Amino acid sequence: MTEYRLHCFAQSGNAYKPALMMALTDVEWAPVFVDFFNGAHRTEAFYALNPMGEVPVLEGPEGTFSQSGVILRMLARKTQKFGPASQPEDDEILRWLLWDNQKLTGYVAPYRFMLNFLPEAKRDAGAIAFLNGRRRIAFKILEQRLSQQDWLALPDRATIADISACGYLFWLDEIGESRDDWPAIGRWLERLEKLPGWRHPYALMPGHPLPGREG
Ligand SMILES: N[C@@H](CCC(=O)N[C@@H](CS)C(=O)NCC(=O)O)C(=O)O
């Protein structure tokens, strides 16, 4: 039997984080499709699974977990991969996980959502401009960090901080960005793509393309 069940959908970079972690660590898992764009995360059944009403949720032998950062930390402990080897490393990894959740993914995800998935009539130009400004600051911080070292939290190896921060960045085209304009980020994404087991989010999780967007 499959060890883990990840409630996810292809367009979710937050779900991609644990999906990628499991792909990179050879953990046995199966996706459970959440029909997010038809409101499946707003149903009683989903709130019973996660009172926060958020994807991802991971079910496994250790229990039911939400928040990608918590899931990544649990999987790192379980697999003994991409995690810390000491308390200072743990602190540094957590520091970047929190930064990613609030300042990088926290702005990139709604920005991409508004540009790509929200019907045009519902788009708010002011909100889009605000999110674009905030996510650009996060891009600059990421670019600066990665021009100093190969990996985000620890200089010499990939950790769950990298797996978290890259969550939305294999969709640079959907954010109106290009690796050419962010060379250190681009080289880091290439390093991630070379990790054994790496796959693009649309290849790892169900639900792509969205109905009506085929071809
Ligand atoms: N910090 C959370 C963010 C999760 C999140 O925002 N997921 C989106 C899908 S990608 C969601 O379920 N949004 C529903 C909502 O915000 O109401 C994590 O890392 O798991």
Output mean pLDDT.
97
Total strand count, please? 4
Which structural class should the secondary elements be placed in?
A: alpha+beta
CATH topology of the largest domain: Glutathione S-transferase Yfyf (Class Pi), Chain A, domain 2
Radius of gyration, rounded?
Answer: 17 Å
- Assign an overall shape: globular
Number of helices: 8
> What percent strand?
5-15%
Total number of distinct structural domains:
2
Short description:
This protein has helices at residues 13-24, 44-49, 68-79, 87-116, 125-148, 160-165, 183-193, 201-204, and strands spanning 4-8, 29-33, 57-60, 63-66. It is an alpha+beta fold. The longest helix is centred in the middle third of the chain and has 30 residues, at 87-116.
Write up this protein.
This protein has eight helices and four strands. The protein folds into two domains: 4-82 and 199-204, Glutaredoxin; 87-193, Glutathione S-transferase Yfyf (Class Pi), Chain A, domain 2 (Up-down Bundle). A four-stranded mixed β-sheet has the order 2-1-3-4, covered by helices on one side. It is α+β, with helices and mostly antiparallel strands. Glutathione binds at residues 12, 14, 41, 53-56, 67-69, 101, 109. The site of glutathione has 12 residues, from helix 3 and helix 4.
